[in-house]
């Protein structure tokens, strides 16, 4: 379980993933001594790809070290929060909250969710110098180990180790922190998946170059400007009130026929205002005054062209002309009885279409000396192309959290409305959403809101480090010790609000909680010392007790591709409890009697629905004799009608 991981990590190198891909697809390019024939490789590519020898790339101290971190297996296990997960609102939930380092969390997720995530939103540390970011991915390599694994000199290896151990907040440290996480995140995305990353001026330029390298420059979509209504006071120069949301897709080729559209921001509010005032008997002129008052607020200022009101709603007079349009006909203005002025560019509608629009009262006549226009109404469903300038007021969410928790438990939460908008134009009703810098769980809140408003079934996966809150803060005094506790409690509080406001709601408003843990030093010593012996009659270690059955089974189910919300079926063989899921049967408990092995073989032979191809054993629980007895008896199945070939997998 952990020892197997140690063995894999011993042989890890910065380019192991790339070499594995090359060996799989271009075996002819590798010589007998294992060296790579680059000239032969170029021949494979020459017909379709122009191979260039010059270009530019992003370089920073520790880049190869960051690439090495991608290839290392996580040495953590997944501990389910059984008390929380068995609550009525959580036991069937497909939402996931992981407490732990997101580097480990992403590696665990890739075992089951690679290529399955539609949308990732993250709000990583901005490296402002005051946001608390320090590099802390320390894997305790020696200078000699790094020199060998990265093929670098001792001096450079020492500089990298110094960077990892001193808690640096340099640009190189930030890039070294982000690189492996983005590399792993990319592999989570489906082919039509998309990632959004909030950032400010401190690392925006570096982030763009980093994403170009990891995600591909050709998959860049936009660098959206987020106007957040906060002013970072620089009184001598310029007050900065914007951040950025960087957007890339996994593959633009997979989005050729996709059109992202979003509800025009504020239109629902304007339409609702008109409907409410109309019901209250307001005149159209008075309604227009109220609407124009709303336009004075930045949130609605972009709608100021919708500056007319009639009995049907708020509208703007849209152009009815087009270049080179016909000029040999017109329509009659019913208010004056005169012919309408023909547009200089010509009509954009046929005569018949103009008559139809007249009949439907969709022509605005206005000044008799100018051409008429088309009444383009604001309504509650006004989809439009997504603009790259986003106005979302962060202070609104700060106030919301203050009211939700009774005080300031979290600094600078991201606007839930912004993430809702992202989800509305990028996702479909059953997609998976990931946020691996979960913070106050704004993304989870947005997912619940979108599901409620649009009757969707989006699922979220949150990852958050159990980072300690500041002592003497309101959060600390309110009983929260770590950031993840705040995030989980926000989800619970917001789900309760949704339930209160939607009495008959049937949506998934719970979540499963898992904690990533490293084995203790005592457990590590026992793992190192463990060696199965032929003459050993009983197992006398406590390794299984230290991990726990739920942890072993949960970690293995995820490793074998079944995800974190799946349950294994418990099956008894002569009183011995095993765990069955599709193609895998897990044997974890010690003391496997011969009677249990016999019943297992009989079940294989007689139960047509029981055909696990893999029997997985917790190696620390079994004697050498028990393992050999099981192997011998299972070989009988090769001679039965099923002709089964069982993969016997002993994990340490």
Automatic annotation (TrEMBL):
Sequence ranges assigned to domain Type III R-M EcoP15I C-terminal in this UniProt record: 548-644
Family: Belongs to the N(4)/N(6)-methyltransferase family.
Domain spans labelled DNA methylase N-4/N-6: 117-470
Record flagged with keyword Nucleotidyltransferase: no
An example Gene Ontology molecular-function term: DNA binding
Protein name in the entry: Site-specific DNA-methyltransferase
GO terms, biological process: DNA restriction-modification system; methylation
